[in-house]
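As a warm-up, study this chain.
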Amino acid sequence: MRYSVTLSAALIGLAVCLFNATGYDPHNFIFFMLSIPAWIAELLFDIHNVAVLPMYILTVLTWAALGFMADSIINRQRVRYHAHE
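Now compare it with the structure written out below.
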């Protein structure tokens, strides 16, 4: 199985975290729009008391997991297509 979508999605998650860490996202708009763990943390906790590094790690891992799911679906479709040839 190829992991191209997994790698691409993980890089997107990393880019979102790096963009936020550089300070170009001063009000965290981009980070909170594109980080699923940040959505959950914001619902469950006071977001000002949440550590940033675990949020970044969880964001990258979440993006990678979404990419892995997409790769799995693509692989399943590819196997099904080649079985019917």
